[in-house]
Structure formats: structure tokens, C-alpha cells
Specification:
The chain is of the alpha+beta class. The chain has one domain: Dimeric alpha+beta barrel (Alpha-Beta Plaits), CATH 3.30.70. 30% of the residues lie in helices and 29% in strands. Helix 1 runs antiparallel to helix 2. It is flat, with a radius of gyration of 17 Å. The protein starts with a strand and ends in a 10-residue tail after the last strand. The mean pLDDT is 87.
Length: 121
């Protein structure tokens, strides 16, 4: 089984009235419940929309630096995601389609690369 990340950038959502967003709650949660019932759901959620609540950790200079705000100035930022575990790409595409329909905005899907296991001492 492979784990896949299904995610969206906040800017893909678009501008809608509050009623529209409220109307997306039930269909979105129905997809989450369907994933859980199918045993493919691993984890997921929406991220805090206030970008000023972000902070960054950077050790590329050799010294750890923790700063307020996102790492890079960008117009797009991650809005939410879920991780699923399925047998193949086609199943991941099917679930991504259900998430896109439930939310009402586009989703991107990427498989995780397995992390090499460390040798046990």
C-alpha cells in the first residue's frame, strides 16, 4: 500500500459568500467519513488561514533560525490536506476526485516516497 497526499492551496478555493462555504461542510465531511469507512483515511485537516500565525525553522546556514511568518514570500500557501493509504494510483485519483467534489475546489495528489528503514542496533 502507498500513502498519498491530497492537498489544495488556499488560493485555489476562490472567493465565495459565507453561505457557499457552509454548504461545503456536509459534502466534505461525508467524503471523510466514506474514507474512514473504507479504511483508507490516515490523517487530514485544514490549516490555519491566518498566514501571520506561521513560523519557519531554517538551519541551512549552520545556525538554527526560527522566524515569524512563512519561509518564503509567496502568493500561494497550503490550505488543507489529507493522507490516504491505497493500493494504486487509480484509487488515489478516485478519492481525490471525491474530495474535490466534496470541497468544491481543485486538489493535487502526490504519492509519498517511502523513508528508508534504519538498521536496528
Amino acid at each position: 500500500m502507498t500513502e498519498y497526499l491530497i492537498f489544495f492551496n488556499q488560493q485555489w478555493v476562490g472567493d465565495h459568500p459565507e453561505e457557499w462555504y457552509q454548504g461545503r461542510v456536509e459534502p466534505s465531511m461525508a467524503v471523510v467519513e466514506e474514507m474512514k469507512a473504507a479504511g483508507v483515511w490516515v490523517f487530514g485537516g485544514g490549516l490555519e488561514e491566518e498566514i501571520d500565525r506561521a513560523f519557519s525553522a531554517d538551519a541551512t546556514s549552520g545556525t538554527l533560525s526560527i522566524t515569524d511568518g512563512p519561509y518564503a514570500e509567496t502568493k500561494e500557501y497550503l490550505g488543507g490536506f489529507c493522507v490516504i493509504r491505497v493500493d494504486h494510483d487509480e484509487a488515489a485519483k478516485m478519492w481525490a476526485g471525491k474530495v474535490a467534489e466534496g470541497c468544491g475546489w481543485p486538489q493535487e495528489v502526490r504519492p509519498f516516497k517511502p523513508v528508508p528503514r534504519m538498521a536496528q542496533d
